[in-house]
Amino acid sequence: MFLTLPFVRDISFVFCFLVVNIPANATWIQNGMTVAGSNGKGIGTNQVNEPYGLFLDDQQTVVIADQMNHRITQWKNDNKNNEQVIAGDNGDRSALNQLNQPTDVLIDKETDSLIICDHGNRRVVQWSCRSGAKEGIVVAGDQGTGTALTQLSYPYGLFNDTLYTLYVADSWNHRVIRWIQGVKQGTVIVGGNGAGAGANQFSVPVALSFDRHGNLYVVDHDNNRIQRFSIE
């Protein structure tokens, strides 16, 4: 389920995990159980191919960015041999019914839709979860590779807040960019100062999240570090 937490300046963010109370001294069984895949690379209904991101919904359905199969699949709880394709799987081109190496996926409960980081197409698409949806709509990017505020360059990670503002790890532009719902271009909130190791720079940021105070954390992949940016 979604957890909405209050922040300073009336900001609220959605954290995408199940809310559970885990004791500080908890331990886990050391042998994992496969819940999806583990049948070799392939396009079969019991296979994935270099999966990248995932989302777990309220019913413990695992939604997977099946990257090299160019699709989003869902795996029902305790049914590891019967996936359902819910977006893409129509080749790796740029039509609205296609995905190209998706790397992250979120569920927007307000609109009952997927938010997909369509990495290879340099865009973010929204795809209805309702049965029969055949294609997505572009909500960010899809304007070719470049540094303009209408463009993304091979994005990797996403975050969506309760105001449905989208935050994107715009990896090859070395920045985090914010897209407010309904606008035509984004706003750079950190980075965008070229690739580098300075405190105001990234080198291929790939994931992001926020703490309960609204501070931003970014996985700065090629700099081998995690950066925190404090909210003002």
Description:
The protein has 232 residues and is mainly beta. It folds into two domains: 93 residues, Thrombin, subunit H (Beta Barrel), CATH 2.40.10; 80 residues, Thrombin, subunit H (Beta Barrel). A hairpin with a 5-residue loop joins strand 15 and strand 16. InterPro entries: 6-blade_b-propeller_TolB-like (IPR011042), NHL_repeat (IPR001258). It comes from Rotaria socialis. Keywords: Glycoprotein, Repeat, Signal.
Which features characterize this protein?
17 strands, 232 residues, globular, Thrombin, subunit H, disordered N terminus, 4-stranded antiparallel beta sheet, 38% strand, mainly beta, 2 domains
Write the layout of secondary structure elements.
Blueprint lengths: L1 E5 L5 E5 L37 E3 L5 E5 L4 E5 L7 E6 L13 E7 L4 E6 L4 E6 L8 E5 L16 E3 L5 E5 L4 E5 L7 E5 L13 E6 L5 E5 L4 E5 L3
Antiparallel strand pairs: 1-2, 3-4, 4-5, 5-6, 7-8, 8-9, 9-10, 11-12, 12-13, 13-14, 15-16, 16-17
What's the CATH architecture name of the largest domain?
Beta Barrel
Show unreliable segments.
1-18
CA-CA gap between termini = 29 Å
Largest β-sheet summary: 4 strands, antiparallel
What's a concise summary of this model?
The protein is mainly β and 232 residues long.
